[in-house]
Design goal:
15 helices; six-stranded parallel β-sheet; about 40% helix; alpha/beta
Length: about 375
Amino acid sequence: MTPPSSVAVNALLFQEPAGGVERAVAECARALAAQAPPAGRRLVLHAGNALGEELKPASETVLIRTGAWKNRLARMAMEQQRVLREYGRGAWHHLGYIAPVCHPSPYSLSVYDITALTHPELCTVANRWRYGLLLGRSIRRARSVVVPSNAVAAAIRRAVDFRGRIDVMPLPLPAWAAPVPGEESLPYEARKHVLFAGDFGPKKNLPFLLRLYRRIPLKLRRRYPLVLVGGRGEAQATGLASAEEHVLARPYVDEAHLRELFRQALVLVYPSLDEGYGFPPLEAKALGTPCVVSDRGALPEVAGRAGGLVLPLREEVFAETLTRLMTDESAWRAAAQDRDGLPGGWRDYAGNLWKIWDEVFFS
């Protein structure tokens, strides 16, 4: 059988409002579209919604735009149709966790976490159904799997009967969070709040965050209110915040505003119950803001490598650490200083994907 000469990339996960995974899919699609494939190779990029309209493909890249879909089932049917239509023309890479059920062509897969398999109670009902049924099957049938952390790689080995190739590739920062040459971090006295950023789903552990924040002395809570910034689940967060003093909940904000919220934060608090990666702690560190994270999932690996403070998931430990950062400028400076361990850029990430595909599909 002649090895395929092209890779079709499924980037149909992108939707609004965009969470960390959707943003990663979009950034990866942009980077793949912007650079020409290696000699003798061709990229077929499937993208939908606003993402498909903005991409400007390089030579030897074919962009196939799709219309909007009404629900998950409609998108799954569209993906299945595309795979069957392209059968025999090349290999596939699916950027969004799962592959269509009927997949005669060889494929690789990007998987950002397997929470639906290891902690289904932390997922929405829809995700529990979709990923619980299809994620393990998709991984087992893949030629290779790309993951953002060693923690996800280890979880796949434990939970899924997959003996194939796993490549660990840390996800680059989004453009809005990248350090700007010559831009200095705001000083300690200019910091305005304590920040949580992310969606407001169960695994983010917001009730724990609110309880530990109540342990902070009142005068410090008045000085540094807790700001919750996120998207899906705004009603829940607004309800929680409305019952708390000095807690503000905001919906998704534009990237310029989000950057300023990170820069003005005294500290980012991220007490998640599970993470396959964790963008907000890296974004905080890139912008000169200390981060305090739980010791769950990939956070010790990802945030810890970038100088974040990794703590056991106990309210008193988090509260003591936050109080120290609020009152001890030298401790805060020490926590804010380290920006090592930040990942590379999306151009390199896309280039590394081509290296993987060359070894998996074309060798």
